[in-house]
Design goal:
Strand content: under 5%
Shape: globular
CATH class of the largest domain: Mainly Alpha
Distance between the termini: 16 Å
Structural class: mainly alpha
Number of strands: 0
Length: about 525
C-alpha cells in the first residue's frame, strides 16, 4: 500500500478540517434543515463528527414536535423521519403519532397513502424501530412493504425502482452503516452545498477508516501469528482480518483504535475454541479443558494437548490485559465477571459436544438456550462492556452481565446470531464434526417436514427478537438501560453485522464491507 508523504498527509488533514468547519458553520444558520442533515449524516456514517450537534438539534426538535403542526395526514414523510430519528436517539415517542394516517375505522393505514413513495419508504424505515406489542408499527411494516413491493414497477418511475428494492432488503436500522454509506455515495446526487460537503467528507472518512483498518489488522495479525495455534490446528479457521471486521463494524468511531484491536482478541479466540470443540478435542480432553478454564488454573491444564494449553494461555493473557486496562483506567477489577463469562462459554460448548457425541437431539428451546451462550456473543459483549469503560461500577450492569436472563441485551443479540448461524447459511463454516442446528431441533419437536416452513419460523423469531432488542437498546428509561449509549449501539451493530457474516444470500454485502475497510489514503482527495 503506497503511503502519502508528510506534505500530502498535511494537505489531506487541512482539507478534512476545513470541510468540518464549513459544515458546522452551516448548521448554525437560521432555517437550516436539521432533520435532513441528521438523516444524511447518519446515512454516510459520519455521526461521530457531529454527535453533540445532533443531540442538541434532536432535543430541540423533540421539545417542539408535539406543539407544531407536523403530525397531519398530509405530512407522512416528516412524521416518519422525526419518529425514527427521535426513537433511535432514545427520546420518548410512541407509535400514536401514526394514528392520523389510519383509515376512518382506525384499524388499517389509509390506502390513499399508496402514491406517496417518499412517505411510504419513510414509514417502512420507521416501522423497524418497533417494540413488542406495538401493533400500529406492525401494520405500518405490512402496509408499506406490501405497496412498495407490489408497485415498485408501475406507479413509481423507473429511477425509483432500485432505491425501493434496496430499502426493502436493507432497512436502515438493521443494516451496517458502512454499507448504507457505500450505497448512498454510489446512488445519490448531491442536492445542495451541505450534501456536497458531506459526500466529500464521507469519501475522505472512508480513506481514513481504510488506513486505520490496515494498521490495526497488522497488529492483530502479529498477535495472532504469535500464538502459533494454527500450526497445530491446520483445519481451524485462520481469518484474523475477517474477525477484525467485526470490531471495525461494532466500534465505528475512528478514535477507538485500541478498543477494536483489544476486542478482536476474544472474538478470534471464540472461533478457535469453537473449532477445538467441533473438530479436535476428545470428550475427555474437552472436559479437562473446560474444568481448567472454570478454575482458571494453568496447573489444571496438565495432560492436555499442547494446542489446548496454548489456547488456555492466550485466553488468560487476553483477559488479564483487559483486566489491567480497566483497573488502571477506572479502579475496578472485572476479573470475576470476565472469568465467569469464559466458564459459561466453555460449559455451553461442552454441553453441545456431549449432545452430539451421544447422538442426542435436544429440545428446540433447550438447544437455543444453550446455543445463545455458545454463540460467544454474551462473553464477547461482556468483555466489550469493560473495554469501553462506561458504567463499569454499575451494580445493575454487573447483575445483567452475570444473571443469564435470556431477555437481556447480550442474550438477545446472541439469539439473533445463533438463529442466523443455524439456518445453515454460514459462508465459511467448515462442516467438520457434528454441528447442531436449532432448525433441526425445531423440525423434530413440531414434526415439521419442510425446511421452508422452518426457515419462516426462524425469521419470525429473529423479527420478534429484534423488537425486544429495540426496547432495551433504544428505550429512554434509565431503569431498563444500565448500559451506556455507546455499549447499546455496539450491541445493535453486532446484530446488524450478523446477516452480513452468516447469510449466504448477502455474500455481496460482505465483499462490499471489506471494500469499505480496505479503502486507503491513496484516493484523489
Amino acid at each position: 500500500m503506497a503511503k502519502f508523504c508528510a506534505q500530502e498527509k498535511e494537505c489531506f488533514r487541512v482539507k478534512y478540517e476545513q470541510i468540518l468547519e464549513k459544515l458546522r458553520s452551516l448548521i448554525n444558520q437560521d432555517g437550516f434543515d436539521s432533520l435532513s442533515f441528521i438523516d444524511v449524516v447518519q446515512q454516510l456514517a459520519l455521526e461521530h463528527h457531529f454527535s453533540e450537534e445532533i443531540r442538541i438539534m434532536l432535543r430541540e426538535h423533540h421539545r417542539h414536535f408535539f406543539q407544531r403542526t407536523h403530525i397531519t395526514p398530509d405530512n407522512l414523510y416528516t412524521v416518519c423521519l422525526s419518529f425514527r430519528l427521535l426513537r433511535q436517539a432514545g427520546f420518548p415517542i410512541t407509535q400514536d403519532v401514526f394514528k392520523c394516517f389510519m383509515n376512518k375505522n382506525g384499524n388499517e393505514f389509509d390506502e390513499d397513502l399508496r402514491e406517496d413513495m417518499e412517505g411510504l419508504l419513510a414509514l417502512y424505515e420507521a416501522s423497524h424501530l418497533d417494540f413488542e406489542g406495538e401493533q400500529i408499527l406492525d401494520k405500518a411494516a405490512t402496509f408499506s412493504a406490501r405497496i412498495l413491493s407490489t408497485n415498485s414497477v408501475g406507479i413509481f418511475e423507473d429511477q425509483h425502482d432500485q432505491p425501493v428494492k434496496y430499502t426493502l432488503q436493507n432497512p436502515r436500522h438493521k443494516t451496517m452503516a458502512r454499507l448504507v454509506a457505500k450505497n448512498f455515495l454510489e446512488k445519490n446526487v448531491p442536492k445542495n452545498e451541505w450534501t456536497i460537503l458531506l459526500q466529500d467528507l464521507a469519501r475522505m472518512d472512508q480513506a481514513v477508516v481504510g488506513s486505520l483498518f490496515h494498521d490495526e489488522v497488522l497488529q492483530v495479525v502479529k498477535w495472532w501469528d504469535g500464538l502459533e495455534l494454527t500450526k497445530e490446528l491446520e483445519s481451524a479457521r485462520d481469518q484474523p482480518k475477517k474477525w477484525h471486521m467485526w470490531s471495525m463494524s461494532v466500534l465505528q468511531d475512528p478514535t477507538m483504535s485500541w478498543h477494536r484491536i483489544l476486542l478482536t482478541k476474544p472474538v478470534s479466540l471464540v472461533y478457535i475454541v469453537d473449532d477445538i470443540f467441533d473438530i479436535y478435542g476428545t470428550m475427555d480432553q474437552l472436559e479437562l479443558f473446560t474444568n481448567a478454564i472454570k478454575r482458571w488454573e494453568i496447573f489444571d491444564s496438565e495432560g492436555l494437548p499442547n494446542y489446548m494449553k496454548t489456547c488456555f494461555e492466550a485466553i488468560q493473557e487476553t483477559t488479564q490485559e483487559i483486566i489491567d486496562i480497566v483497573y488502571q483506567n477506572h479502579g475496578f477489577d472485572p476479573s470475576n465477571i470476565l472469568k465467569r463469562s469464559w466458564g459459561e462459554l466453555f460449559d455451553a460448548f461442552l454441553t453441545e459436544a456431549k449432545w452430539f457425541g451421544n447422538g442426542h437431539l435436544a429440545k428446540a428451546d433447550e438447544y437455543l438456550s444453550n446455543g445463545i451462550v455458545s454463540s460467544g456473543v454474551p462473553m464477547v459483549l461482556t468483555h466489550l462492556f469493560f473495554i469501553l469503560g462506561d458504567n463499569v461500577w454499575s451494580e445493575e450492569a454487573h447483575r445483567v452481565l452475570s444473571n443469564g436472563d435470556h431477555n437481556n441485551i447480550l442474550y438477545l443479540v446472541g439469539m439473533i446470531l445463533r438463529l442466523f448461524d443455524d439456518l445453515g447459511s454460514a459462508q465459511d463454516e467448515q462442516c467438520y464434526g457434528n454441528d447442531g442446528s436449532y432448525v433441526e431441533c425445531y423440525m423434530k419437536d413440531f414434526e415439521v417436514s419442510s425446511h421452508a416452513v422452518a426457515k419462516k419460523h426462524v425469521m419470525k423469531k429473529v423479527s420478534e427478537t429484534w423488537k425486544k432488542l429495540n426496547k432495551r437498546a433504544l428505550s429512554s428509561s434509565s431503569s431498563s438501560n444500565p448500559f451506556s449509549e455507546s455499549f447499546r449501539n455496539a450491541c445493535l451493530n453486532v446484530a446488524r453485522m450478523v446477516p452480513v457474516i452468516y447469510d449466504k444470500g448477502r455474500k455481496n454485502d460482505l465483499l462490499a464491507l471489506a471494500q469499505c475497510f480496505e479503502s486507503t489514503l491513496n484516493e484523489d482527495e
